[in-house]
Amino acid sequence: LPRPGSDTSSSSIEFFDLADRKAKRVIDDASGFELSADGKKLLIQRKGDWYILDAKENQSASKKLNVAGME
Q1: Which of 4, 6, 15, 30 has the highest CB neighbour count under 10 A?
Q2: Nearest C-alpha neighbor of 46 from the set 14, 71, 9
Q3: What is the reported pTM?
């Protein structure tokens, strides 16, 4: 998410692959996220919308969650 000192409110979500010893990008332009307890899924917020993605490299936010009925 936003790096300290950054003037933006969104950033990429990345993880460090211990086997490859490289940082890998999950998705760009996210303003928040939560990782599932088993580490396999991410709930991300992007431009005011919510998405569920696999916690893997090069994901796309294509299916918005319908949260219109939530209170």
Answers
A1: 30
A2: 9
A3: 0.76
